[in-house]
Amino acid sequence: GAVVSQHPSWVICKSGTSVKIECRSLDFQATTMFWYRQFPKQSLMLMATSNEGSKATYEQGVEKDKFLINHASLTLSTLTVTSAHPEDSSFYICSARGLAGETQYFGPGTRLLVL
Amino acid sequence: TQLLEQSPQFLSIQEGENLTVYCNSSSVFSSLQWYRQEPGEGPVLLVTVVTGGEVKKLKRLTFQFGDARKDSSLHITAAQPGDTGLYLCAGARGNTGKLIFGQGTTLQVKP
Question: For tag attachment on chain B, is the N or C end more exposed, with fewer CB atoms within 10 Å?
């Protein structure tokens, strides 16, 4: 149980385009999902907290107009990187927390490369 | 300011050796989680510790939560090449669900 999926697993796009990444909890309902980015050989950096039916809460230094987050249902959150640039290239990982408990279950990540 | 200090950040050992990874903080956490991450994949939860002084074992891995719930350790006995990976500790505070991650420990076990 507690499986989280992400789609796509990797994406290459041209500078200036927008990219949408989906995060789904497959076998449980997630009231809260989290979005992280990770640079090579570094730890995870929290970008934002996504709550179902409400606006996302962004961490300091994360541009909310650039990283649009939508949490439309208890099993789906999306992250859209708008007008992507090469510096946005990274490994984006989502996690989901169930209705009870503090454990977060992570998705497999999405590798984004902006040319 | 790094709220959760993880050490060592890099560790290269021979198969069969023992090792310990530490996570330390001046803050109290309601729970602490340990993850292992393979390159190109998401972190996989190993264990969650909640009670101060708690010890949990997962085969050759032993996890301990400090009495004051400010620190934790991961001990691996007789490490194997399959243990190679990035180990991450993460502490939870309050009811926001946010996790504060340590810097990670890259472990390489040589055959």
Answer: N
| φ/ψ of residue B81, rounded to 5 | -55, -30
**Within an 8 Å CB–CB cutoff, is residue B35 touching chain A?**
yes
Q: pLDDT digits over B54-105, tens only?
A: 999 999 999 999 999 999 999 999 999 999 999 999 998 777 778 889 999 9
Task: State the DSSP H helix or E strand holding residue A63, giving kind and residue range, or none if neither.
Answer: none
CATH number at B65 reads 2.60.40.10
Task: Give me the domain span that covers residue B82.
Answer: 5-110
Q: Is B105 on the interface with A (CB under 8 A)?
A: no
Contact flag B35-A34 (C-beta cutoff 8 Å) = no
Residue B103 DSSP class: -
Q: CA B13, CA A99: separation in Å to the nearest integer?
A: 41
